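DM between two lab members

TW: hey, do you still have the Probable WRKY transcription factor 40 entry open?
JB: yeah, one sec
JB: this one, 302 aa:
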Amino acid sequence: MDQYSSSLVDTSLDLTIGVTRMRVEEDPPTSALVEELNRVSAENKKLSEMLTLMCDNYNVLRKQLMEYVNKSNITERDQISPPKKRKSPAREDAFSCAVIGGVSESSSTDQDEYLCKKQREETVVKEKVSRVYYKTEASDTTLVVKDGYQWRKYGQKVTRDNPSPRAYFKCACAPSCSVKKKVQRSVEDQSVLVATYEGEHNHPMPSQIDSNNGLNRHISHGGSASTPVAANRRSSLTVPVTTVDMIESKKVTSPTSRIDFPQVQKLLVEQMASSLTKDPNFTAALAAAVTGKLYQQNHTEK
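TW: and the structure you got?
JB:
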């Protein structure tokens, strides 16, 4: 049987075409890679924390260095310049002075002084604004108000709320007298001039000065008025001064309460004349002056 089987021919068909079998190599295990990745991530995180801590320490050191430098500068400045003398709290806001080597130096800035001065000027102007109404003729188209003072016109313009133009005047004694005046016709009544004054005059009226000078010339020309009489005359001239409040009251809103300046001037003249006639010294001086004048005229005619 064994011999028979060995003598048989192997008739099996080999279907392979000569291609060798390929062995598929398996990948290494991924656990090692995952472990390496975790290690690198942990190292990066640790480095980031160290860098953050280093930045914080740098900022703290830098802040301490700046504080030390500032303190050093302040100490050096205090050693070079002596301490300033502290003034009272009331005047501390206005200015503070430090005396260095006998020379006074003001530590307040020019801007602060300018603002304080401007605020004071505005306060004074607001407190001294007055308005006066003057009655004029219907045919009078000028904006001239005769209030006893001399003015200089420096401008004129038309406003939106009034068809009549507004004229601007300043005192003829400027810049020593800073009073200003605005004149414009009333919207309700075109025959009424509204004069707005800003400030107060620091000098008497020119008309009063002229009248006083005329009386002085009259009495001195007579030659018989003594010094006490002249002193009494001057005192009598200064007594009957009547102050007229020309400031418009806030309660008056209509142009019915107006002040006629010629009537006020007439009242002042009457009061002055009555007070002068009641003074016996002035009467005697006036009589002596008139007598001396008549005597000189008669002597000249002869």
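TW: got it. Residues 94-108, 222-259 have pLDDT under 50 and may be disordered. The CA atoms of residues 50 and 283 lie 112 Å apart.
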